[in-house]
Amino acid sequence: APQCPGIETLCLDLADWGATEAALSAAGPFELLVNNAAVALLQPFLEVTREALQRSLDVNLGAVLHVSQIVARQMIAQGVPGAIVNVSSQASQRALRDHAIYCSTKSALDMLSKVMALELGPHKIRVNTVNPTVVMTDMGRINWSDPQKSAAMINRIPLGKFADVDDVVNSILFLLSDKSAMTTGSSLVVDGGFLVS
C-alpha cells in the first residue's frame, strides 16, 4: 500500500497449506496477527453442498489454525510476547437462516481461539476474537443489500445499524494493544446489541 510503505502484501489462497507455509516462513518476524479471511457461502440447510462445507472449513477454520501455528511458532522461537485476534461473528452465537455453515465455522473458530489462548498463554501470546454484526464491507454489502433482509436484521439491533469497518478495526486495535494486556480467551462483541435483543 502506498500510504504504508513498510507493508508487504502477499496474495495467497490460505486453503493451500504448502503455499501459505512457504510465504509466511519467508516473512516476519511477527508480533501481532489478525486472522480476517473468511467466506460466507449462504445455502438453506437442506441444500448445503459438500463443496461449500469444505471451502468454508478450509478458510474460516483451517486457515486460521494453520496461519496461527506458523506465526505462534515464530513468536515462541523469538521469545517475544504476542497477540492474535481472530475475526469471528455474532453468527457464532445465534442461528441465522441460510447460514448453517457460516454459523458453524464461526462457532468452531470461537472455541479454537479459546484453546489457543489456553495453550499459548504460557508463551505470553494472547488470543481473542472480535464478534461483529454485519459489517459494511464488500462481502457485507453483497449478502445484505436486499432492503427487506437488512431491515429485519437491523430491527434486531438495539443501536439500529450495521457496523462500520472502523468499529471493528478499533476493537481489533484494542485487543492487539497493551491496553488489553490481561485479556485472553475472550470474545469482544461488536454487534450494536444484537445478541442481547
TrEMBL record:
Subunit field text: Homotetramer.
Give the record's family classification: Belongs to the short-chain dehydrogenases/reductases (SDR) family.
Domain of life assignment: Eukaryota
Write down the InterPro entries for this protein, in alphabetical order: L-xylulose/Carbonyl_redctase, NAD(P)-bd_dom_sf, Sc_DH/Rdtase_CS, SDR_fam
**GO aspect biological process, one term:** glucose metabolic process
Q: Which UniProt keywords apply?
A: NADP, Oxidoreductase
PROSITE patterns named in the record: ADH_SHORT
**What is the name listed in the Swiss-Prot or TrEMBL entry for this protein?**
DER reductase
The UniProt entry's coiled-coil ranges are none
